[in-house]
């Protein structure tokens, strides 16, 4: 399973001539477990760069949306393969008790917010409501889903390839919310079933402890909570993700200094192997 980061809800450049080191695009991660098929986790602004990199040998794309906040869908209209007639395109998103996924995405993909409507896209498009707690298959990957702690209808994803290698994606997640003395040894902790024993966990790490104290209930984690959650779940590798856009690169360097983590950076690519 090959993983590439295209957007991290990124940082800003530190003062000086340096370019952004972590990345400025919003959430988007590419996963390839089978030739000709691409799984995309969220459709933030990083999706445009992903689309520009794709070649015409891609037969099918599955976009898995955790939720429909704008920073997770604003790249959709700029994703080149949505305009390729030969591509089979599936968009998955959390179910709602009021409107299906097509109706909700159609609010964004229509004038006056966007000039192109969903019905005008030329790819072979199918939209699917994701069960809040369930499993479905896409080519080469089993996808497990669960409702997680974040405002609105939000799901987390665990992707497992045919070799049993797994990636868990929880970009907007507040597992400490309402949990006394977090973390506690409990399978009832939000996201636990998705993350337990996973090979790679990409997890919300938006705040430091001081910032989180005034933002409880906003749906995001302090880095210390994300680390505690990773330890509770026994993950193999933890990747901080979804940075606060007000944090510059120097702030993030200091936040991650001397920690056993692999901070997400745009363009980062890694292969999940048996090791």
Short description:
This protein is α/β, with parallel strands linked by helices and 275 residues long. It contains 6 helices and 13 strands. The model has no long low-confidence stretch (mean pLDDT 93).
Give a quick set of tags describing it.
27% strand; alpha/beta; 6 helices; 275 residues; single chain; 13 strands; 7-stranded mixed sheet
Task: Describe this structure as you would to a colleague.
The chain has 275 residues and is an alpha/beta fold. 16% of the residues lie in helices and 27% in strands. It contains six helices and 13 strands. It has a seven-stranded mixed β-sheet. A six-stranded mixed β-sheet has the order 7-8-9-10-11-12. α3 links the parallel β10 and β11. The mean pLDDT is 93.
Furnish the topology, listing elements before pairings.
Layout: E1 2-7, E2 28-34, E3 37-41, H1 46-53, E4 60-64, E5 88-94, H2 101-108, E6 124-130, E7 133-138, E8 141-147, E9 155-161, E10 166-170, H3 192-195, E11 200-204, H4 209-213, H5 223-233, E12 238-241, H6 249-256, E13 269-271
Parallel strand pairs: 3-4, 4-5, 5-6, 10-11, 11-12
Antiparallel strand pairs: 1-2, 1-13, 2-3, 7-8, 8-9, 9-10
